[in-house]
Amino acid sequence: MTQPDLFQANYGPSLDAARRDALDCRRCDLWRSGTRTVFGSGSADAQLMLIGEAPAEADDRTGLPFSGPSGAVLDAWLEEIGLTRGDVWLTNVVKHRPTVVENGREKNRPPRAGEANACRVWLDIELSHVRPSLILALGGTAGKALLGKGFKITQQRGRVLPGPGAIPVIATFHPAYILRLEPPELQQAEKLVSDDLALVGRELKIGS
Predict the structure, then answer these.
(1) 160: part of which helix (H) or strand (E)?
(2) Residue 94: what pLDDT?
(3) CA-to-CA distance for 138 and 143, rounded, in angstroms?
(4) Are 98 and 53 in contact (CB under 8 A)?
(5) What is the per-residue pLDDT for 74?
(6) Contact assessment for residue 36 and residue 19, using Cβ atoms and an 8 Å cutoff
(7) Is the pTM of this model over 0.85?
(8) CA triple 69-46-85, angle to 5 deg
């Protein structure tokens, strides 16, 4: 089934209205593990939208995306291309935190395909209202949600690819992935991310 044109379908009057509606979302069971809806935030007319995987533990506490250690990494990435959180729109594929219990502790897990599909309406609303010039997909989960289940981050990151609503997509690694790495893999991944960010800057003509 083809998806409706993002810019023709009726996705409601505003982002604020969508945010209020999403507070009581029960489209999948993630509301049982996440204590609150974490909707996107930032500039509603941003040229760049960054889409991650799912809210983390810190985001579940604050109600804001990328508010923990991954957010600190992301802030440094944005600074690298001359941007701040106030210049972009930050969001995730799903709006509640997915968790799994391991050794008696609750840990983050990637959202399942059914959860991402159920939550897609909120992402489409964000895309339809913000209408970014470019999307930066953070990690494989975001890449699959935007580009199809055959997407592979190791093969397709660092390229400009056609995305939803004809919005171009560049994929790079998720900040949480970078935080898990040790040298020398850490330096290698950071170099690739830096290359991807430079491509974002060129596409948006930042500094030109």
Answers:
(1) strand 160-162
(2) 97
(3) 7
(4) no
(5) 98
(6) no
(7) yes
(8) 25
Q: Are 95 and 122 in contact (CB under 8 A)?
A: yes
Quick check: 90 and 65 in contact, CB under 8 A? yes
Q: How confident is the model at residue 4 (pLDDT cuts 50, 70, 90)?
A: very low
Backbone CA torsion sign across 205, 83, 127, 11: negative
Distance separating alpha carbons of residues 156 and 140, to the nearest angstrom: 10
| Chain mean position to CA 40 | 9
Neighbours of 123 (CB within 10 A): 23
Which structure tokens are listed for 103? 């050794």
Residue in this structure with the two tokens 């604050």, named with its chain if needed: 62
103: pLDDT confidence band, cut at 50, 70 and 90?
A: confident
Helix axes 69-80, 185-203, angle to 10 degrees: 50
Sequence-distant (6+) residues with CB within 8 A of 36 are: 23, 60, 63, 96
8 Å CB contact between 100 and 75: no
Residue 77 to residue 147: CA distance in whole angstroms: 23
Name, in order, each residue with C-beta under 8 angstroms of 181's C-beta and a sequence gap of 6 or more: 189
| Model confidence at 157: pLDDT above 90 | yes
